[in-house]
Amino acid sequence: APHGNHPRRTGAFRRAMGISEDALLIGAVGRLVPIKNLGLLLEAARLARQDAANLHVIFVGDGELRQELADKASALGLDDAVTFAGWQDDLPAVYADLDATIITSHNEGTPACLIEAMASGCPVIATTVGGIPDMITAHVTGLLTPPGDANELARAIVTLVKEPEQARRMADQARGEALARYDEQRLVTDMERLYRELAREAGLPGQGD
Q: pLDDT tens digits, residue range 97-142?
C-alpha cells in the first residue's frame, strides 16, 4: 500500500523552496484568512527561535492576509525565516518535508489539513477549538495549545524540537488513527475535492470542473 511506508522527508519540497535540510520546518496549510489567526504562528516562531535558531515557517496556501503576514514577519525580524509557498498541488510532498503542521485557528470544524497531516505522519500542534480536541489526544497524537496563546504555542514547538522521539511516536499514532477513522478512499477523495475547492478560490486554470 502506498501509505504503508510513507516517505517522511523526501526533501523535494524543501529543495523547490530553497529551504535547507537541517532547518526545523513548521508549516500552516490553508487559506490565509483571519479565522486562521496565522499572526499567532509568527509571534510563537519569534519566541521559539530563542531555543531553535534554525526554525523556519512556511505558509502553504494564499489569501487576503498574505501581505499583512509578510509585513508582520518583517516587523518581527523573521524575514529570513518565513516563506510563502502559495498553493501546492502535491500536498503529500509538503507534509513529507514538514517537521510539524501548526493549526492556530480561532475556530474550526474538522480541518481537512489536520486529517491530511495526521494521515501523512506529520507531527501536529493545534489549538483546542471546534472539532480539533475530538481528533487529537494531547501528548498521544499531537500537542494542543490554547487559542491565542503565543507562549504556549512556542513552548509546544520547542518541545517537538527537543523531543524528536516523542514527536515521531505521536505522529505514528496519529497516522494509525487517521487511517482507521478516515478510510483511505475517503481521504483521497477529500483531498482531491479540497484541492479543487482551493484551486477554484485561488482562480487557478483548468480547475473548473
A: 999 999 999 988 878 889 899 999 999 999 999 999 999 999 999 9
pTM of the model: 0.85
156-165 LR contacts (CB < 8 Å, sep 24+): 156/125, 157/26, 157/44, 157/45, 157/48, 157/52, 157/55, 157/100, 157/102, 157/125, 158/48, 158/51, 158/52, 160/99, 160/100, 160/123, 160/125, 161/24, 161/48, 161/51, 161/52, 161/55, 161/99, 162/51
End-to-end CA, the chain? 29
Residue 25 β-bridge partners: 56
Compute the C-alpha angle 56/197/42, nearest 5°.
20
Sole residue written with cell 501548526: 102
Distance CA 28, CA 209 (A): 27
